[in-house]
Fold this sequence. Notes:
Strand order of the largest sheet of chain A: 1-4-3-2-5-6
Number of domains of chain A: 1
Distance between the termini of chain A: 23 Å
Structural class of chain A: alpha/beta
CATH topology of chain A: Glutaredoxin
Strand content of chain A: 15-25%
Oligomer: homotetramer
CATH class of chain A: Alpha Beta
Order of helices and strands of chain A: EEHEHEHEEH
Amino acid sequence: MRPNEPVPEWRVRRWVGDGPASLASLRGRVVIVHAFQMLCPGCIYRGIPQAVRLHERLGGDAVVLGLHTVFEHHDAMGDASLEAFLAELRVPFPVGVDAHETPRSHPWTMRRWGLRGTPSTVVIDRAGRLAWERFGSEDDLDVGLRLGQLLGAASEGCDGEVCPA
Amino acid sequence: MRPNEPVPEWRVRRWVGDGPASLASLRGRVVIVHAFQMLCPGCIYRGIPQAVRLHERLGGDAVVLGLHTVFEHHDAMGDASLEAFLAELRVPFPVGVDAHETPRSHPWTMRRWGLRGTPSTVVIDRAGRLAWERFGSEDDLDVGLRLGQLLGAASEGCDGEVCPA
Amino acid sequence: MRPNEPVPEWRVRRWVGDGPASLASLRGRVVIVHAFQMLCPGCIYRGIPQAVRLHERLGGDAVVLGLHTVFEHHDAMGDASLEAFLAELRVPFPVGVDAHETPRSHPWTMRRWGLRGTPSTVVIDRAGRLAWERFGSEDDLDVGLRLGQLLGAASEGCDGEVCPA
Amino acid sequence: MRPNEPVPEWRVRRWVGDGPASLASLRGRVVIVHAFQMLCPGCIYRGIPQAVRLHERLGGDAVVLGLHTVFEHHDAMGDASLEAFLAELRVPFPVGVDAHETPRSHPWTMRRWGLRGTPSTVVIDRAGRLAWERFGSEDDLDVGLRLGQLLGAASEGCDGEVCPA
């Protein structure tokens, strides 16, 4: 994926929580996808807490979603484990389980989006195009400044017909 | 001061570091003024470190300045003390010393701007108008989101003649 | 369990890592048992990192062990999940899996020792007696002072025959 | 100063707060002296907050004291500045001002004790001998373990007559 190009639809096996119908259905809103694995230390200690803080602060023009992209320890991160993990950590946003074509392959959306590992953050603008993609962690001030600028840019990036839903 | 109204010029007795000629001379840039006292715990532990982090991240379209607004312990926070403090803490942005009309009065700019205490942050938009003023601390994510949105709003708030310098 | 009374032997189904033969075999050393569940937030964010820091600092006269005491979300915290969790978080000390008499009962050692939840820390003196038991978290300075005093007390608590192994 | 040798009496110009009559008068108690300068970043951000946490936790058999050892920026850290600083940061233990033989010399106690800079911590056992001296910061767990062991060692280090006051 390249900046400013359309982000392909995800392929999600199921949602924990009330997930959206599709990425396309979120057109007109900024979408922050936090791709993680429940047993990845960078996700547990930095990525997920930051995504939760973002969810608490962002209003209706932006949405935070999780994407569980398991590419290792498949037996350790099945549905029951993920559900318990999300409940115990009180993750308040919906989390989609990235689809696998074969049981131990890299998950579908992760491959299609070219993600390099976890945690990764994919930020999609109001027109459904890639704003940026980041592997690893950024501190709160960097994330806030970057995301604030995207949110402040109003609908500048939209071309009339497609943008505001 | 009210949001969207012009911010009055400061009155500064001297600058530590290379301060700007005036507030007016910064028209066209977002100005973040961190008003502090060198012996205020909220300034030492939260406000100043955050202002330094902002200074490190913001480019030419935004400027971070300190304003030393002493309204208590006047003998403890004189010029020699302030200079040593700024050198030891490696504060990288210019700091203006708010003027006093009489030696122990509330300092001039603090009164004129209606600041309630320290730390206070005053954010001024590209047209020289108050974006917001805050007494106390905010966490990095809140500050980043808020400031990012102002920076992302481009020159939308400017009315042709006055705005970009 | 009461302070200064002998701590009963644990009953552990298996060890991840190189566990000791028994509690009795550790007589003469101070034993710190960190009882946790891999999906308990207080364990993930405070208890386990602190136990790791203790393990890194303590020498041969003290030993840190984990005890996985699962009493909820049994399906989510099976052997494969625990092993992946310990590997990913690089937990450097051996972890025993507390035994269950029936699949969903409270685990055996947890009941026998009267632990109230996770994280719990059980500290056993050189003579095999309970020094203290704590439910929840303590900050590093409290833990250090308390444990340091026990370690500094030399073998005062030992009655000749039984104490140094 | 060497470990286990008697620590020479300090020479203090004045106390802020209710200081002890002398070091000798504290015989029988463990004494933790936190040597600092009010404008030293390592003191402000790590040393002093840790000394305050120690003071809050230690009982009657141990005492925490500050020692203001100014060897630079003498004009910036005079009596008025120090008093305001200690009041604002709510430092709860007495602070002695290390004596100067000439106005800009290294302070007397700092030289006599051979301290290399600030922050330094000097820990004196119940018999008035040096337990250890440390330049710079240590984390809470290290400090707690080390100090706990000294406190736990009872009066082992005392020779009958001189030790308990």
